[in-house]
Amino acid sequence: MSLSPTTSTEANVKIPQGVCALTYTPLDVQGIINSVRDDSAGATAVFIGTTRNSFKGKVVTRLEYQAYSKLAIKTIADIVVDAATSIARSDHQTSSQTVSSLIRCAVGHRLGIVAVGEPSIVIAVSSPHRKEAFVACEFILEGIKRKAQIWKREYYEGENEDEAEWKANE
């Protein structure tokens, strides 16, 4: 699968629940975390997915990501909205409280070449309580892996780079 260069472009969207971005620029982990800060948050959960140096016994030299960006950014935003509306409120909250289970979410996903050790995805979620933050972080990650129109290509040491195959971003 080879996508045209214009298909895999930087994109970002701001929604009431947070911000989502696809970028060729290295992810600013602290900036993403700071974007979900809120004085009403009792917890901030963060997931940082990095390029690891091996896969099934092979030495990985780098990853490359491409996306159908226009659709992928909408899909990611929909997943964030889903998380904000479907994550159950904590037992810590009484029924008379009107505090949302999530305060703010931010997702950054790399495009292009991502070297070993570099972040390829960062998800940050703030919430009044830790349980919802952890649950939402995983919900968003698994949703992106299942639904977002993003593909990755793994390059292995000692293998012909022209034969590296595109695969779903799992």
TrEMBL record:
The record's section on Gene3D superfamilies has: Molybdopterin biosynthesis MoaE subunit
Q: Which InterPro entries match?
A: MoaE_sf, Mopterin_biosynth_MoaE
Q: Which GO terms describe its biological process?
A: Mo-molybdopterin cofactor biosynthetic process
Q: Which SUPFAM superfamilies match?
A: Molybdopterin synthase subunit MoaE
**Organism encoding this protein:** Lyophyllum shimeji (Hon-shimeji)
What is the protein name for this chain? Molybdenum cofactor synthesis
Superkingdom field = Eukaryota
